[in-house]
Amino acid sequence: MDLQHWLNEAVANHEKWTAEHGAFTPHSSLHVDPAVFGSALAELQDRLRDNYPFFHPRYAGQMLKPPHPAAVVGYLSAMLINPNNHALDGGPATAAMEREVVDSLAAMFGYDEGHLGHLTSSGTIANLEALFVARSLHPARGVAYSSEAHYTHSRMCGVLGIKGHPVPVDDRGRMDLDALEDLLRTGKVGTVVVTPGTTALGAIEPVHLVLDAARRYDARVHVDGAYGGFFTLLAGTDLAPEPWKAIAECDSVVVDPHKHGLQPYGCGAVLFRDSSVGRFYLHDSPYTYFTSDEMHLGEISLECSRAGAAAAGLWLTLRLLPLTRDGLGEVLAAGRRAAVRWASTIRESDALELYQEPELDIVTYFPRTTPLSLSAVDAASHRVMETGMNAPLDPVFLSVARASKEAFAARHPEVTADADGARVLRSVLMKPESEDYLDTLHARVLSLL
């Protein structure tokens, strides 16, 4: 895709639209000297080089990659206007786009027309909104989430002043159902957070089984799909369908288009199965919501001003890569195939050990050290990461995840527990190009041992 061409098209179309409203003289206070601008821009471009190459498959560290060119063009097209999707008069066109993409996300998860939802500036805010509604419905009951859930849940429980209940995990890093049942039996929990795709290991928690348990105790279920949600597109083909199909019966779900949805940062989403929860957002404003009797997006959001450009970027992307198995799903499938194949290669290696079987596109592994102990594994994992990322030639960018001695004992009892835990290497293969680069990546990691 010729990004330069389509960016030029976007700017040209913007200039045509602005010309339709008549000429005017820009204020002198906004004028800057072209030479000064050029110098400042050159400095900016130079400073931006102080980044890791997120675009390249040699970067297999965190959940980072540039947006799709369609998202860039869509975002820029709207950003030049700078609409605000808080109220319809602030962004009528992008508000309509937001509703369309939210409907598409809802359909992907199996929600019917009675849903309610909107885009947010992040998955953190999206989860905050879901827990805000949970508190409103069960003010005297807390929230349960697995000990491997994203830390945002414990943090947001603190913000909302509700009790958070971490639930132990099983030997695959998923919420332990027996421990959850024991907690639900106390009556202290009003909402259970379930994660189909944990951010450390990519473990798929059993949404369907958690849902069954929660319903027996009159508890709500919130799905944190910020990282894993888009893998719903692979349900029944690449992945077992049960956890993903159960999302349709859960009370709320969060997904981050700025992760696997190919969007720039500033694009999360929260969806509620029952639109009646909109009553908890009710508020009044003396100077907005007056141009239409339709519901304004700001009336169902804790955030006020939100970038309409985020909706435009996602809308254009989904026109080209729809939420189907053969559309956006193929982008995710490539990363998952890479993870599964790398796991197989690691199992055959004498130098590396697979920490846990990958379920999505995150691979965790560690060097086979002598002696094979937690302290040795920890030091070797850290050394590989540091050496790889600082190599002057052919660098490779990995990350590490901390694993407790109990977690190690459950997965690798052969590793001597001479420390409280150890770091293991962690690679996120969310760029589809990782599939073709995998052999090079594996060889480079081996060279660092």
Automatic annotation (TrEMBL):
<dbReference type="GO" id="GO:0019752">
    <property type="term" value="P:carboxylic acid metabolic process"/>
</dbReference>
<keyword id="KW-0456">Lyase</keyword>
<dbReference type="InterPro" id="IPR002129">
    <property type="entry name" value="PyrdxlP-dep_de-COase"/>
</dbReference>
<comment type="similarity">
    <text>Belongs to the group II decarboxylase family.</text>
</comment>
<dbReference type="InterPro" id="IPR021115">
    <property type="entry name" value="Pyridoxal-P_BS"/>
</dbReference>
<dbReference type="GO" id="GO:0004058">
    <property type="term" value="F:aromatic-L-amino-acid decarboxylase activity"/>
</dbReference>
<keyword id="KW-0663">Pyridoxal phosphate</keyword>
<dbReference type="InterPro" id="IPR050477">
    <property type="entry name" value="GrpII_AminoAcid_Decarb"/>
</dbReference>
<feature type="modified residue" description="N6-(pyridoxal phosphate)lysine">
    <location>
        <position position="259"/>
    </location>
</feature>
<dbReference type="GO" id="GO:0030170">
    <property type="term" value="F:pyridoxal phosphate binding"/>
</dbReference>
<dbReference type="InterPro" id="IPR015424">
    <property type="entry name" value="PyrdxlP-dep_Trfase"/>
</dbReference>
<dbReference type="Pfam" id="PF00282">
    <property type="entry name" value="Pyridoxal_deC"/>
</dbReference>
<protein>
    <submittedName>
        <fullName>Pyridoxal-dependent decarboxylase conserved domain-containing protein</fullName>
    </submittedName>
</protein>
<dbReference type="InterPro" id="IPR015421">
    <property type="entry name" value="PyrdxlP-dep_Trfase_major"/>
</dbReference>
